[in-house]
Design goal:
212 residues, mainly alpha, Tetracycline Repressor, domain 2, 9 helices, 65% helix, globular, Tet_transcr_reg_TetR-rel_C_sf, transcription regulation, DNA-binding, TetR/AcrR family transcriptional repressor of nem operon, Homeodomain-like_sf
């Protein structure tokens, strides 16, 4: 039985939503296509009507996840009345984020795995992450564009690293200590710096995956 274009589009979105969550929870290699489709409430045979391969799904799902992560954190920054860097540190380095990998930052959950994926996967993740670094560059302190970009990358790398460590260790006190230490370090080095002309707006269109 053929489904309508609208229903097919809904099914594709459902697969992507489930894939972004399960990849972050279990890892890219931690779930196969059959189990993923079952979790989406769809049949295995329908998968190839939406994606060319699992690699194609990984690329689209990871790109989508990074885009949503980016938009979520930017929303936090846009709504804060204080220092946006402090707000980002407090939200990102919260226990809620650490304990909910399936809904959290894709780079923190899958960064090491993405590094081993195809060129197509790495490309789409790269292109979705770059605008977030550009955005951070507009809100951090620095006397030049190059220095602000350097500090933006340092900030994001510190956030990601803290979550990775906090999730990896089996000592709850040490995990909490890691989050608090990095948050305090970020706050101690940051002072409010409203970007000229307001916060930088970015495009949210997902780029096409590059051919391997």
């Amino acid at each position: 039985m053929r489904v309508s274009r609208t229903k097919a589009a809904e099914n594709r979105e459902r697969i992507l939503d489930v894939a972004t969550r399960l990849f972050r929870e279990r890892g890219i290699d931690g779930i196969g296509v059959a189990d993923l489709m079952k979790s989406a409430g769809l049949t295995h045979g329908g998968f190839y009507g939406h994606f060319r391969s699992k690699d194609d799904l990984v690329a689209q799902a990871c790109g989508r996840a990074v885009q949503k992560m980016r938009d979520s954190w930017i929303k936090v920054l846009d709504q804060t009345t204080g220092d946006p860097v402090h707000a980002l540190a407090d939200t990102y380095l919260a226990a809620k984020h650490r304990d909910n990998a399936g809904r959290g930052c894709t780079i923190a959950a899958l960064g090491s795995e993405i590094a081993r994926q195809s060129t197509a996967v790495r490309h789409i993740v790269t292109e979705e992450l770059k605008p977030f670094i550009d955005y951070l560059s507009a809100i951090v302190q620095g006397s030049s564009a190059s220095l602000r970009r350097e500090r933006a990358i340092t900030l994001y790398a510190s956030l990601v690293g803290a979550i990775v460590i906090a999730r990896a260790v089996d000592d709850a006190a040490f995990s909490n200590e890691t989050l608090h230490a990095v948050a305090n370090g970020i706050r101690s080095k940051s002072t409010p710096r409203p970007p000229k002309g307001g916060k930088k707006r970015i495009a949210t269109r997902t780029p096409r995956a590059a051919k391997p």
